[in-house]
Amino acid sequence: MQRGVAILVLGILAATVATSMISPAPAVAQEEKTEELTRKVKTRVAPIYPDIARRMSIAGAVKLVIVVAPNGSVKSSKAMGGHPVLVNAAMDAVRLWKFEPAATESTGVVEFKFQPQN
């Protein structure tokens, strides 16, 4: 009985490895190639350093991929990296940014650096 279970488990593992080797690369890899925004920022709002991050002395950078609508408002943002405690503060701030108008949407990366203040 145990030998049959072991063979079944090995078969499942082999099938999983085989299918993962065939699967295409995830779409996330394409988003990381996004360039810096070339549109000029008209209104820039600094993020509020979270109190819990201050108490825990959490520092670091947060990278966001943002989509700017033709009217200059931030249409969407998605975290590419950074400490989870700091990501929300960065996303809240970038939603308030305003860019110069353009004919089409723009996509790019914005980076925020958080340093604990004494």
Structure explained in plain terms:
With 118 residues, the protein is α+β, with helices and mostly antiparallel strands. The chain has one domain (27-114): TonB (TolA/TonB C-terminal domain, 2-Layer Sandwich). It contains 4 helices and 5 strands, in the order ααβαββαββ. The strands form 2 sheets. The protein has a 3-stranded antiparallel β-sheet, with helices on one face. Strands 1-4 form a two-stranded antiparallel sheet. The protein is elongated. The relative contact order is 0.22. Mean pLDDT is 76; it is low at 4-34.
Entry summary:
The protein is α+β, with helices and mostly antiparallel strands and 118 residues long.
Strand tally, please? 5
Main sheet characteristics: 3 strands, antiparallel
Give the fraction of residues assigned to helices. Answer: 25-40%
- Please identify which CATH superfamily we are dealing with: TonB
Average predicted confidence as pLDDT? 76
Strand content: 25-35%
Spatial separation of the terminal alpha carbons: 64 Å
Provide the CATH topology: TolA/TonB C-terminal domain
| Sequence stretches where pLDDT stays below 50 over 5 or more residues | 4-34
Radius of gyration of CA atoms, rounded to a whole number: 21 Å
- Going by helix content, strand content and strand pairing, the class is alpha+beta
> Strand sequence of the main sheet, in spatial order?
3-2-5
Q: Name the helix and strand elements from N-terminus to C-terminus, one letter apiece.
A: HHEHEEHEE
> Domains counted in the coordinates: how many?
1
CATH top level?
Answer: Alpha Beta
- Gross morphology is elongated
Q: Which architecture per CATH?
A: 2-Layer Sandwich
Number of helices: 4
